[in-house]
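Record passed on here:
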Amino acid sequence: MKIPVTVLTGFLGAGKTTLLNRLLKAPEMAGTAVLINEFGEIGLDHLLVERLDEDTVLLNAGCLCCTVRGDLVRALRDLAVRAERGQEVTRVVVETTGLADPAPILQTLMSDPVALSAFTLDGVVTLVDAVNGAATLDTQVEAVKQAAMADRIVVTKTDLAGEAAATALEARLVALNPVAPVLRAVAGGIAPVELLGIGGFAVGGRIPQVAAWLAAEAGHGHHHHDHHHHDPNRHDAAIHAFGLVFDDPLPWQGVATWLEMLALTRGDSVLRVKGLLNLAGEDRPVAIHGVQHVFHPPVRLAAWPAGHDRRSRITFVLRNLPRDIVEAGLVSFVTSAREAAEITSESRR
């Protein structure tokens, strides 16, 4: 029996981690290994996927093209060895970075001898955010590829977007991908049976570009070369990712005020903010998520991940917004909040 592989994709902030967390709690997902590809210097998603860490492998190399293909094959080879030794690996979920073009992964899973010997591609599940989805499809070629190559499309955040916007987006997705059922999930809630057992990826019935994209990836082969400079469909040069680490606990007031300012003034440039924070006066870690102008309420997690140094980590994926502006702004808000707290405690004495 070959081990089924599900590719979970969707543009930044579509809710992949939320959906994955909900799916992994279902009994039929026991024995699932999760491979996460993170775009940026500090991989955070594996800390936010509440699962045994030994089953989560971080593929850390930015966009999923040449370098990550090698990582993916190595990770699958390791999982195949574990399965042969009797360790239960019933299925694999590959969660791609929101900026990933799915074609290289599909090409790897459909053509690599190692992948084909032990694994079978079950299908591609693409999440599309009802709030930002239409604008994302207008501006990001990767988002179009993700939707066109899906076997199941899950529209998220319909409760925030409103019925008219959600319905219009769904009609557009059906035109872009006539073969994939379009489903809805609220707060990541969807039954695993809806997304699993799809039975493999097929090009038939899709828009003609899909076959061309896969053929182009097959043409790239496995030799290393840099195709980023001459392929306009790769990441926009203005997009960059970085992480900030803070040793001391952060004042929530300072962080929250700064996040509001960032979303208000530069939301269009903020493709993603994700953080695991150690807040002053708080024992448990707090996760923050933001996409463009929308910041979700902070979530207090049950406990710090084992072996975590408890330093706050925030990752950013930005477009046309320099790192130093973001870093300086955050530091100044945090500093003034700390000073205000000190003045308040002095006055109470």
The longest strand covers residues 119-129. Residues 3-220 form a domain with the Rossmann fold fold (CATH 3.40.50.300). DSSP finds 13 helices and 13 strands in the chain. The radius of gyration is 21 Å.
